[in-house]
Amino acid sequence: MSPRAVVCHKEWTLQPDREPDAAPITYAMQCGVCDESSPTSTDFAEPQGWVFEHGGRNPSHHTYREIITRPWRAWWRP
């Protein structure tokens, strides 16, 4: 008997995970000058507060990046 392959093409769906058990959305800020980062938080105001503290200690650091981690889920469409 010769080997045989079965191919099944599936269409995927992708969306943000809003299920009750989904991981929380988290926020952080990263300095664009020295790459130091704030602690991660589920409250976006906490990392933004870190920017003012970091900028106060480093007056020449004026550029920052916001890092948002958002859970997503993917599944096969029926």
From TrEMBL:
Name by which UniProt lists this protein: DUF7848 domain-containing protein
> Which residue numbers delimit the DUF7848 domain?
1-77
Source species, domain of life: Bacteria
Output the InterPro entries linked to this UniProt entry. DUF7848 (IPR057170)
Q: Name one Pfam family in it.
A: DUF7848
